[in-house]
Design goal:
Elements (H helix, E strand, L loop, with lengths): L1 E3 L6 H4 L13 E3 L6 E5 L3 E8 L7 E7 L10 H22 L25 E2 L14 H6 L4 E3 L9 E7 L5 E8 L1 H9 L9 E7 L7 E7 L15 H19 L2 E6 L3
Length: about 270
Protein backbone atom coordinates (compact mmCIF):
# COMPACT_ATOMS: atom_id res chain seq x y z
CA UNK A 1 0.00 0.00 0.00
CA UNK A 2 1.25 3.49 -0.89
CA UNK A 3 0.12 6.88 0.36
CA UNK A 4 1.33 10.46 0.46
CA UNK A 5 1.96 12.09 3.83
CA UNK A 6 -0.80 14.66 3.24
CA UNK A 7 -3.31 11.81 3.12
CA UNK A 8 -4.62 10.43 6.40
CA UNK A 9 -3.15 7.12 7.52
CA UNK A 10 -5.54 4.20 7.85
CA UNK A 11 -6.59 2.98 11.27
CA UNK A 12 -4.57 -0.19 10.60
CA UNK A 13 -1.43 1.86 9.96
CA UNK A 14 -1.93 3.87 13.15
CA UNK A 15 -2.83 0.91 15.37
CA UNK A 16 0.76 -0.01 16.36
CA UNK A 17 1.28 3.42 17.94
CA UNK A 18 -1.53 2.73 20.40
CA UNK A 19 0.27 -0.41 21.60
CA UNK A 20 3.59 1.23 22.45
CA UNK A 21 3.13 0.86 26.21
CA UNK A 22 2.27 -2.84 25.94
CA UNK A 23 5.58 -4.62 26.44
CA UNK A 24 7.49 -4.98 23.17
CA UNK A 25 4.47 -4.62 20.88
CA UNK A 26 5.62 -1.26 19.52
CA UNK A 27 9.02 -2.59 18.50
CA UNK A 28 10.59 -2.02 15.10
CA UNK A 29 14.05 -2.65 13.66
CA UNK A 30 15.74 -0.69 10.87
CA UNK A 31 15.77 -2.16 7.37
CA UNK A 32 19.38 -1.06 6.94
CA UNK A 33 21.28 -0.51 3.67
CA UNK A 34 20.52 3.21 3.85
CA UNK A 35 16.73 2.83 3.57
CA UNK A 36 14.44 5.13 5.60
CA UNK A 37 12.36 2.19 6.73
CA UNK A 38 11.83 -0.48 9.33
CA UNK A 39 10.28 -3.88 9.95
CA UNK A 40 7.96 -4.38 12.88
CA UNK A 41 6.39 -7.42 14.47
CA UNK A 42 3.53 -7.75 16.94
CA UNK A 43 2.19 -11.11 15.88
CA UNK A 44 2.34 -10.24 12.19
CA UNK A 45 5.15 -8.61 10.23
CA UNK A 46 5.09 -5.31 8.34
CA UNK A 47 7.72 -3.36 6.40
CA UNK A 48 7.33 0.43 6.35
CA UNK A 49 9.32 2.80 4.11
CA UNK A 50 8.98 6.60 4.34
CA UNK A 51 10.67 8.58 1.57
CA UNK A 52 10.96 12.31 2.35
CA UNK A 53 10.71 14.43 -0.80
CA UNK A 54 13.84 16.60 -0.79
CA UNK A 55 12.24 18.96 -3.30
CA UNK A 56 9.17 19.39 -1.04
CA UNK A 57 9.82 18.96 2.68
CA UNK A 58 6.10 19.09 3.41
CA UNK A 59 5.63 15.82 1.56
CA UNK A 60 6.71 12.20 1.85
CA UNK A 61 5.73 8.92 0.24
CA UNK A 62 4.94 6.05 2.60
CA UNK A 63 4.91 2.41 1.54
CA UNK A 64 3.57 -0.49 3.61
CA UNK A 65 4.26 -4.14 2.94
CA UNK A 66 2.35 -6.68 5.05
CA UNK A 67 3.13 -10.36 5.40
CA UNK A 68 -0.36 -11.78 4.98
CA UNK A 69 0.49 -15.47 5.27
CA UNK A 70 3.25 -16.67 7.60
CA UNK A 71 5.60 -19.30 6.07
CA UNK A 72 4.96 -22.86 7.22
CA UNK A 73 8.69 -23.55 7.30
CA UNK A 74 10.55 -21.34 9.80
CA UNK A 75 13.68 -21.59 7.63
CA UNK A 76 11.96 -19.59 4.90
CA UNK A 77 10.91 -16.71 7.17
CA UNK A 78 13.92 -14.50 6.52
CA UNK A 79 13.94 -15.04 2.72
CA UNK A 80 10.22 -14.20 2.65
CA UNK A 81 10.77 -11.05 4.77
CA UNK A 82 13.68 -10.05 2.56
CA UNK A 83 11.47 -10.44 -0.50
CA UNK A 84 8.77 -8.34 1.16
CA UNK A 85 11.37 -5.69 2.01
CA UNK A 86 12.66 -5.55 -1.54
CA UNK A 87 9.17 -5.31 -3.06
CA UNK A 88 8.20 -2.55 -0.61
CA UNK A 89 11.38 -0.48 -1.02
CA UNK A 90 11.47 -0.84 -4.81
CA UNK A 91 7.77 0.01 -5.13
CA UNK A 92 8.30 3.16 -3.07
CA UNK A 93 11.38 4.07 -5.11
CA UNK A 94 9.58 3.70 -8.45
CA UNK A 95 6.47 5.59 -7.28
CA UNK A 96 8.55 8.47 -5.92
CA UNK A 97 10.40 8.79 -9.24
CA UNK A 98 7.16 8.59 -11.24
CA UNK A 99 5.46 11.36 -9.28
CA UNK A 100 8.42 13.73 -8.97
CA UNK A 101 9.39 13.11 -5.35
CA UNK A 102 13.17 13.47 -5.22
CA UNK A 103 14.03 11.13 -2.36
CA UNK A 104 17.13 9.59 -0.83
CA UNK A 105 16.77 5.85 -1.11
CA UNK A 106 19.06 2.97 -0.19
CA UNK A 107 20.82 -0.05 -1.65
CA UNK A 108 19.12 -3.30 -2.59
CA UNK A 109 18.12 -5.27 0.49
CA UNK A 110 19.76 -8.67 0.87
CA UNK A 111 18.70 -9.57 4.41
CA UNK A 112 15.63 -8.63 6.47
CA UNK A 113 14.79 -10.37 9.75
CA UNK A 114 12.31 -9.84 12.56
CA UNK A 115 13.18 -7.37 15.32
CA UNK A 116 15.71 -9.16 17.53
CA UNK A 117 14.01 -8.53 20.91
CA UNK A 118 11.21 -10.84 19.84
CA UNK A 119 11.70 -12.85 23.04
CA UNK A 120 14.98 -14.30 21.77
CA UNK A 121 17.63 -11.76 22.74
CA UNK A 122 18.89 -11.87 26.32
CA UNK A 123 19.04 -8.43 27.97
CA UNK A 124 22.54 -7.14 28.76
CA UNK A 125 23.87 -4.61 31.27
CA UNK A 126 23.25 -1.06 30.10
CA UNK A 127 26.93 -0.07 30.26
CA UNK A 128 27.48 -2.36 27.24
CA UNK A 129 25.02 -0.56 24.93
CA UNK A 130 26.42 0.23 21.47
CA UNK A 131 23.38 0.66 19.23
CA UNK A 132 20.03 2.40 19.76
CA UNK A 133 20.50 2.44 23.57
CA UNK A 134 24.04 3.86 23.48
CA UNK A 135 22.87 7.27 24.75
CA UNK A 136 21.92 5.70 28.08
CA UNK A 137 25.28 4.14 28.95
CA UNK A 138 26.09 7.06 31.23
CA UNK A 139 22.83 6.54 33.11
CA UNK A 140 23.50 2.91 34.03
CA UNK A 141 23.47 3.70 37.75
CA UNK A 142 20.22 5.66 37.58
CA UNK A 143 18.63 2.97 35.43
CA UNK A 144 19.57 0.32 37.99
CA UNK A 145 18.11 2.42 40.81
CA UNK A 146 14.93 2.78 38.73
CA UNK A 147 14.63 -1.01 38.49
CA UNK A 148 15.87 -1.47 34.91
CA UNK A 149 19.61 -2.27 34.88
CA UNK A 150 19.53 -4.12 31.55
CA UNK A 151 18.65 -3.33 27.95
CA UNK A 152 17.77 -4.73 24.54
CA UNK A 153 18.60 -2.54 21.56
CA UNK A 154 18.69 -2.40 17.76
CA UNK A 155 21.49 -1.49 15.35
CA UNK A 156 22.31 2.22 15.24
CA UNK A 157 20.78 3.64 12.06
CA UNK A 158 20.47 7.32 11.11
CA UNK A 159 17.97 6.63 8.31
CA UNK A 160 15.14 4.67 9.92
CA UNK A 161 12.05 6.77 10.76
CA UNK A 162 11.49 4.82 14.00
CA UNK A 163 14.10 3.98 16.66
CA UNK A 164 13.55 1.82 19.77
CA UNK A 165 15.46 1.11 22.97
CA UNK A 166 14.08 -1.05 25.80
CA UNK A 167 15.18 -1.12 29.44
CA UNK A 168 14.66 -4.43 31.27
CA UNK A 169 14.20 -5.48 34.86
CA UNK A 170 16.46 -8.10 36.53
CA UNK A 171 13.60 -10.56 35.96
CA UNK A 172 13.97 -10.12 32.20
CA UNK A 173 10.83 -8.02 31.66
CA UNK A 174 10.76 -4.76 29.64
CA UNK A 175 10.10 -1.93 32.09
CA UNK A 176 10.67 1.23 30.02
CA UNK A 177 10.50 1.72 26.26
CA UNK A 178 12.09 4.64 24.40
CA UNK A 179 10.93 5.61 20.92
CA UNK A 180 12.08 8.16 18.33
CA UNK A 181 9.89 9.07 15.36
CA UNK A 182 10.84 11.16 12.33
CA UNK A 183 9.08 12.79 9.39
CA UNK A 184 5.70 11.40 8.40
CA UNK A 185 6.01 8.63 11.01
CA UNK A 186 6.24 11.32 13.71
CA UNK A 187 3.18 12.99 12.19
CA UNK A 188 1.27 9.72 12.27
CA UNK A 189 2.32 9.05 15.86
CA UNK A 190 1.09 12.48 16.96
CA UNK A 191 -2.28 11.87 15.32
CA UNK A 192 -2.84 9.16 17.96
CA UNK A 193 -3.85 11.47 20.81
CA UNK A 194 -1.66 10.89 23.86
CA UNK A 195 -3.81 13.18 25.98
CA UNK A 196 -6.57 10.59 26.06
CA UNK A 197 -4.29 7.86 27.40
CA UNK A 198 -3.59 6.91 30.99
CA UNK A 199 -0.05 5.62 30.41
CA UNK A 200 2.90 7.13 32.25
CA UNK A 201 5.19 8.68 29.65
CA UNK A 202 7.63 11.52 28.94
CA UNK A 203 7.75 13.44 25.65
CA UNK A 204 10.27 15.58 23.73
CA UNK A 205 10.51 17.09 20.24
CA UNK A 206 13.22 18.45 17.91
CA UNK A 207 13.55 20.17 14.54
CA UNK A 208 15.28 18.07 11.87
CA UNK A 209 16.56 19.07 8.41
CA UNK A 210 15.02 16.16 6.49
CA UNK A 211 11.38 17.16 7.02
CA UNK A 212 9.11 19.99 8.08
CA UNK A 213 7.60 17.62 10.65
CA UNK A 214 9.03 17.78 14.16
CA UNK A 215 10.78 14.65 15.40
CA UNK A 216 9.11 13.15 18.48
CA UNK A 217 10.79 11.23 21.29
CA UNK A 218 8.81 9.27 23.88
CA UNK A 219 9.52 7.16 26.95
CA UNK A 220 6.79 4.79 28.16
CA UNK A 221 6.29 2.97 31.44
CA UNK A 222 5.63 -0.48 29.98
CA UNK A 223 2.81 -2.84 30.91
CA UNK A 224 3.09 -6.64 30.82
CA UNK A 225 -0.05 -8.33 29.49
CA UNK A 226 1.23 -11.76 30.50
CA UNK A 227 1.14 -10.90 34.21
CA UNK A 228 -1.40 -8.05 33.96
CA UNK A 229 1.01 -5.77 35.84
CA UNK A 230 3.83 -3.26 35.47
CA UNK A 231 7.28 -4.93 35.71
CA UNK A 232 8.52 -1.63 37.18
CA UNK A 233 5.97 -1.11 39.92
CA UNK A 234 6.66 2.58 40.58
CA UNK A 235 7.17 4.92 37.64
CA UNK A 236 10.09 7.30 38.20
CA UNK A 237 9.30 10.63 36.51
CA UNK A 238 12.78 11.99 37.29
CA UNK A 239 14.52 9.00 35.73
CA UNK A 240 12.14 9.08 32.76
CA UNK A 241 13.03 12.72 32.11
CA UNK A 242 16.79 12.08 32.38
CA UNK A 243 16.67 9.00 30.18
CA UNK A 244 14.50 10.61 27.51
CA UNK A 245 16.65 13.76 27.46
CA UNK A 246 19.82 11.72 26.90
CA UNK A 247 18.12 9.58 24.25
CA UNK A 248 16.63 12.56 22.38
CA UNK A 249 19.84 14.61 22.42
CA UNK A 250 21.87 11.66 21.16
CA UNK A 251 19.37 10.95 18.38
CA UNK A 252 19.27 14.62 17.41
CA UNK A 253 23.06 14.77 17.16
CA UNK A 254 23.14 11.74 14.83
CA UNK A 255 20.72 13.41 12.41
CA UNK A 256 21.64 17.08 12.59
CA UNK A 257 18.44 17.97 14.49
CA UNK A 258 18.26 21.03 16.73
CA UNK A 259 16.10 22.63 19.42
CA UNK A 260 15.44 19.50 21.52
CA UNK A 261 12.59 20.39 23.89
CA UNK A 262 11.25 18.42 26.79
CA UNK A 263 7.47 18.77 26.75
CA UNK A 264 5.37 19.17 29.87
CA UNK A 265 2.29 17.02 30.31
CA UNK A 266 -1.02 18.85 30.53
Amino acid sequence: MLRWSDQSATSEALAPFSRNANGLQGQAAPLGNGWPGYVRYDGSAQVVVALDCQNNKNRALVAYGDLIQWPDDAKTTEPVLTGLGRVTTESAQKAAAKYGCQAQDGRQLTHVSLPSPNGKTAPQQLAQAQGSCAALRGLAGQASDAGTPDFVEYPADAHTPQVNCYLFTPAGKPGYGLYAYYGVVAKDFESVNLANRSDDYALATARCPQSEEEAVFVLYHLYDRDTDSYPVRHYSASFAKSALKAFAEHEAKQRGCTNVRMMSRS
